[in-house]
Structure of Sulfotransferase domain-containing protein:
Amino acid sequence: MSMLRAKCWPLLWLLCTYASAVVADVSCEEHDFHATQFLQMTSILNAELHSPLKPWDVHYYLGVAYHKAGTYLMIQVWQSIFHALGAKPLIDMGQWDQPCYPGTCYAPDAPIQVWIDLYSPAKAQKAREAAGERGLRVAGFVRDPVSMIVSAYCYHHRGKELWNFVENPQGIVAQMGPLEGLTFEAQRMLPVVKNMTGIFEHPANDTLRLDYERTTASSDGFDSEMVKLIGFLFEDLISAEERAEVLNATQRADLNRHPANDDDNHSNDPDCKARTREYVPAMPSDLLGQYRSFQQRLGYAPS
């Protein structure tokens, strides 16, 4: 029996009782008593039937991101989606980073979360257990693992994120040449790439893999991935009009449409990436072998 049908049974019983009282030879006081019961029950049920449930009242939502696989893109997309549906920052929406830099971790009990460099197969199992019957909806971008470390070197080599003591402690990557820096980033990012691969090589039913390369290559690719994401997250929990509003909101994160929105200059110089990639075959063989394995498991050709 559905929850709605179960809630209706007392109402149906009262309706029958009230109808019987109307046609039966009962006192005015008894008639009024049944009428009052009926009106009270219909008032309560009507409020429940028309309460404005939000999707995050039904499921827990988790956007996951990994360093140089579209972290800021994921944050922008996730926030745009749920802001458009009325979610409140710090109340409905939280974030957790590994490690927790100042201002990056807040509202850990919120039903909508972004986890950065944190989500692993082990944590996925714990998150599912914590979600219980409400269940999770998890989504994240996947990028070619070798492209991730190439991008990380170019990004930190030009002095970005001096506060990042994992991938750029004390800004030392700026002093490294391509091979040294590429090897350094590959070693530092190994746990992150391993977790990304473990989650997305065979995604669970509650998990959606988004294609970073397709999303960033063109606006058509961006829209295609966003439509897929919106459908996965909400199914029939939002209206067609809300879907259109959400898609429109996400498009602010599309740098092909809005290049000026890359205000922190997260995109790297293509020449730097091309030059750095030439040093990939010269990386230590055991380290390179792990990244080739990650590529294969995620469906990327060696590059």
Summary: DSSP finds 13 helices and five strands in the chain. The chain has two domains: 3-49, 57-298.
